[in-house]
Design brief:
- The protein is of the alpha+beta class and about 475 residues long.
- It has 2 domains: about 200 residues, no CATH class; about 240 residues, Alpha-Beta Complex (Transposase Inhibitor Protein From Tn5, Chain A, domain 1), CATH 3.90.350.
- Helices cover about 40% and strands about 20% of the residues.
- The protein has 19 helices and 17 strands.
- The longest helix has 24 residues.
């Protein structure tokens, strides 16, 4: 810090430094200090490795080994490190947190992001994401086999279970699971561990795919006394119970005109629904309840393949049921964003504990990005109202080019050396003014320092690309060369 005070430091990712402000707002520093994760061991602590990993993801470095060999000082300065650790030190440093502490942090994080309004918990989507890994036979017990969408067969690997908030479009929680995990054996414990105490009475709708088919899962979601008490919208696996009712329904309407309706160029759906009814004995009072899913059949015109979709909502048309199920694209697209922007698939090694820590840190990064999006909404929204991904915004918001960082009294000043367009300059001025106001009382994470950003004047219209060419070398030199030739 004395060197920074004396002559400053040049970094090429000045936008990373705003993450200090949002980590402070998230309040994670207090909980980590309470858990003893900010106590120095061998010159650094878990918090230093935590900051380094946050910076790595937002900078756009996909793996731990590449981050550790990074020479530019943005990552080390953000992480409060004089120099970056080696790969093993980084991996083992992050893995020094216990599994109990990871679980405690996951539950604390859920409470905090609910307080910040990043999740509502009313309409929830569940899904798995298979991570294929090549493992040695003697380590196979730690992994298990799961269905791989890429390879179209069951493969060894990990399979995080993910909950997504439909209303906010944000991740709720991602938990490590072996690839052998399946929906019916996961949902009940997962919801009780993370969601039930926090959102009990708030659940309105739950969206699941065919992997979760099973009366135990349906009962838990529908039952308001022992479970979530929400409406269920699902794709249903063609097991014997479902197939019996579906085939009877199709047989009864086999000769009916206009029974099949257009859905898209490849699919048609039934114009009517059939009820799927079963009895459920409540564990508490042993009373018998009846649950019902109103089901619609969807048919592939080319292959004849049938799929069944169900909804517990009463008086709903077949088309409404299918349209409701399309909300599941929210979690599918969300997982793709976690993979491409936050490197969810780039697991650090094959130790399940290290991988679970990785999922926790990816979750924190996702929430930090949504907090930034809340304050820089005009900069980060597409014309259709959707939010630009971190992959899209990384160069605009975090890696804007060279800046000089100096310390002036109680303020860390970031002076950009590059100019931006008038539009971006206006957005950045508003955003960085807001960030500066958030640090008015100093940041605990920086020992009381404030942050202030200084932008260059915007470049003029003459810098717009109009297919004009400017010679880097004066024309006279070429003329002289011709004479010499």
């Amino acid at each position: 810090m004395r060197g920074v005070k004396r002559s400053g430091i040049y970094i090429n990712a000045p936008g990373l430094l705003v993450l200090w402000v949002y980590l402070e707002e998230l309040g994670i520093v207090h909980i980590l200090n309470k858990m003893g994760l900010m106590n120095d061991q061998n010159g650094c602590n878990w918090f230093d490795h935590f900051l380094f990993n946050i910076a790595r993801i937002f900078y756009g470095i996909s793996t731990y080994s590449r981050a550790c060999s990074h020479e530019e000082p943005s990552l080390s300065f953000f992480s409060h490190l004089v120099r970056l650790p080696c790969n093993d030190t980084f991996l083992n440093g992050l893995g020094s947190i216990s599994q109990e502490q990871v679980f405690e942090l996951q539950k604390w994080l859920l409470v905090r992001i609910k307080e910040l309004g990043l999740i509502h918990g009313k309409r929830v989507l569940f899904d798995f994401h298979q991570l294929d890994l090549d493992v040695e036979f003697d380590k196979l017990r730690q992994f298990g086999k799961g269905p791989s969408p890429k390879k179209k067969v069951c493969c060894n690997g990990f399979r995080p279970h993910i909950a997504w908030d439909l209303d906010t479009g944000n991740l709720i929680v991602a938990e490590f699971r072996k690839a052998s995990a399946r929906g019916p054996t996961t949902v009940k414990r997962f919801v009780k561990d993370f969601l039930l105490s926090l959102f009990n009475g708030l659940f309105e709708e739950v969206y699941i795919d065919s992997e979760y088919t099973g009366k135990d899962v349906w009962n838990f979601i529908l039952d308001s006394e022992e479970g979530m008490g929400a409406q269920l919208i699902c794709c249903i696996k063609q097991n014997a119970f479902v197939r019996k009712h579906r085939d009877t329904f199709l047989f009864e309407h086999r000769d009916e005109d206009n029974f099949w309706c257009y859905w898209d160029d490849d699919h048609i759906h039934s114009a009517k629904t059939f009820p799927l009814v079963w009895e459920y004995i409540c564990p508490k009072d042993k009373k018998i309840k009846k649950f019902c899913l109103n089901c619609v059949v969807k048919k592939n015109i080319k292959t004849g393949k049938l799929r069944t979709f169900g909804s517990s909502k009463p008086n709903q048309s077949p088309r409404q049921t299918l349209e409701d199920y399309t909300y599941r694209w929210t979690i599918e697209n969300g997982i793709k964003d976690l993979v491409h922007s936050f490197f969810l698939d780039k697991c650090p090694g094959m130790n399940p504990h290290h991988v679970n820590v990785h999922f926790l840190l990816v979750s924190i990064c996702k929430h930090l990005y949504r907090m930034i999006q809340r304050d820089a909404e005009s900069l980060m929204k597409n014309s259709n109202g959707s939010i630009k991904s971190l992959e899209t915004m990384r160069d605009h918001l975090f890696k804007q080019g060279c800046a000089k960082v100096i310390i002036s009294h109680d303020t860390i000043e970031i002076h950009f050396l590059n100019s931006f367009s008038p539009k971006f300059t206006e957005h950045f001025n508003k955003f960085y003014h807001l960030v500066h106001n958030k640090t008015a009382n100093g940041l605990k994470i920086l020992g009381g320092f404030k942050l202030k950003f200084f932008l260059q004047p915007p470049y003029g219209d003459e810098y717009k690309n109009a297919l004009k060419k400017a010679h880097l070398t004066p024309v006279k030199i070429f003329e002289n060369l011709e004479k010499l030739g």
